[in-house]
Amino acid sequence: MKEIVKLESIAQFNSERGQKTLHPKVSVLDQSLSKPITATRFVSELYIIFFKDLKCEELKYGRTHYDYQEETLLFIAPGQVLGFEKDIKIIQPNGWALAFHPDLIRGTSLAKRIKDYDFFSYDVNEALHVSEREKQIVLECFNKIKHELEYPIDKHSKSIIVSNIELFLNYCVRFYDRQFITRENINKDALVRFETLLNDYFQSGKPQTLGLPSVRHFAEELHLSVNYFGDLVKKETGKPAQEYIQEKVIDLAKEKLFDINKSISEIAYEIGFKYPQHFTRLFTQRVGYSPYKYRTMN
Q: Which domain holds residue 261?
């Protein structure tokens, strides 16, 4: 396995591509002007957005392989591992790249919101594919930031640059919402498989050994990142994935409560609760009655 290299600074990011550093904390590169780079695996301390407008070599992002198609945006957060897995020595970068250090946004509104942009933790196979119109908006945003970087740094530089990055990320939220809609059939297929997995989980006896099912469990079963899976469920059902699972748990509990030969504690253990009082608390919160009162009422 190739050695993992640390990508620690904007200067390092630019230098590897043979391009000048105009600002120590942020860079926008037209990658057609970059020199070929050594294919390696690296862990980034930067936020990086790659916009690929051409097909490129197979890439591994986290645990996932991805073969780029045209007009694709890939988002990388600090701590992510990225690299090329095939026996490739030299790569010619293409498209555009926006990179910024977390220090750039400290103390800004973007710093408070950056965790809300879930796509920074999507897997690479969940990358954003943009239309021609969206591509033009992406390039406009990149060019605005690049244009600002070409001015001498002054007291206004940071706020203008950060505002434009935030504008770009907000556009990407819109584009992802569109992608969830245009991939409706694929998403519905994932939801059907999720529902099947959820039913199978409770019919298999797994709750008694593994406990309550988690959102992460089903995301991994469907080969999706946790955040992407959560966003998919929320957009298709209007409910967070955790709430969706809890509703299934409550429906199953209601059914079991009609069996008066089982105590409430036995039912709690069967469903996957480690402690019966946790079951009672959740049931009461969701239904408005305790399991005992629900049983006696029915």
A: 185-297
